[in-house]
Write a structure and sequence with these properties.
By secondary structure, the protein is mainly alpha-helical. The chain has helices at 2-7, 12-50, 56-59, 87-91, 106-125, 129-151, 156-169, 178-203, 210-223, 228-249, 257-269, 271-285. It folds into two domains: 1-127, no CATH class; 149-287, no CATH class. It is built from twelve helices and no strands.
Length: 287
């Protein structure tokens, strides 16, 4: 088996791109269904607590597997050949095969994005455990970014496993030493918590959701405490641009989670260069 895997190393990048396309198809399901699962869970919990009767729809299973994918307009089930990443969208002309309702362009774009980012991670880190961890990190960051952009949710079902996975991958220092990973998780969470606490004391308003705190803790668990200042700085720059664009285009607040996700991925993909820059800065500044 090891010899077989070693023989696949020259094909690592195209294999990663193909895996990314397939993973992106699944991420589309995650992005749509996880918020619905959360809202249904809250509704069912509230009704059961209050002794109210559940509707027929609320009694049906709804998870990442059931019900089967179907057109949201005509409810025709999606056939296997209609679920091939990107290819099916092109063959169908971007429309449902039955009722011809338009299919969102975001489905193939998420698939393409995942394929491109998977290939970039593999090109950067080769055939290694770092790449395996990077692909998992990339997939979860894509899902979290789109969910937060759509709903302003950062589900615990994704952020908490991301924290534990980061710590597990760093048990033997895959990305950073374990001590740095633990400090990264703690400092990532507590730094934003302190900012939110001070902001609430000064304004009486909640400035940031708990999901953002957990996402930064997860990024700290993966990438270590040392890069957190750089990561937050990059996220803030992305957030400022996003805020200006969103307020002009839609006139509503924006979610900060996508900015953290993008910044975290950029720091991961350029980790060596950023770590070297941090060490240089600490050296010349005397800290």
């Amino acid at each position: 088996m090891l010899a077989f895997l070693h023989g696949l190393a020259p094909f690592a990048v195209p294999l990663a791109a193909l895996t990314g396309l397939l993973t992106g198809s699944f991420l589309n399901v995650v992005i749509y269904r996880v918020p619905v699962m959360m809202e249904r869970g809250w509704t069912v919990f509230a009704k059961e607590h209050l002794g109210l009767e559940l509707t027929a729809a609320e009694q049906q299973p709804f998870n990442l597997i059931k019900p089967d994918s179907r057109c949201p307009k005509c409810y025709t089930p999606v056939k296997p050949w209609q679920n091939i990443p990107v290819v099916s969208y092109l063959l169908l002309g971007g429309k449902c095969g039955s009722c011809k309702a338009p299919i969102s362009k975001r489905y193939p774009l998420v698939e393409l994005l995942t394929g491109i980012l998977f290939a970039a991670v593999t090109c950067q880190y080769g055939w290694s455990m770092v790449t395996l961890g990077g692909l998992i990190l990339t997939a979860l960051l894509i899902a979290l970014a789109f969910i937060d952009a759509d709903t302003q949710y950062l589900p615990d079902q994704l952020t908490l496993p991301l924290i534990w996975l980061g710590l597990l991958f760093n048990l033997d220092g895959t990305f950073v030493p374990l001590a740095s990973a633990v400090l990264g998780a703690v400092c990532g969470y507590m730094s934003l918590w302190m900012l939110c606490y001070i902001y609430k004391l000064l304004t009486g308003k909640i400035g940031m959701g708990g999901g953002d705190l957990k996402l930064l803790a997860a990024l700290g668990a993966w990438l270590g405490a040392g890069v957190l200042p750089v990561l937050v700085f990059i996220a803030a720059l992305i957030g400022i641009v996003a805020a200006l664009v969103m307020r002009v285009a839609k006139g509503r607040p924006f979610a900060f989670g996508p900015s953290l996700a993008v910044a975290g991925w950029l720091v991961f993909i350029a980790n060596d260069k950023i770590s070297a820059a941090v060490r240089w800065w600490l050296g010349v500044s005397g800290f």
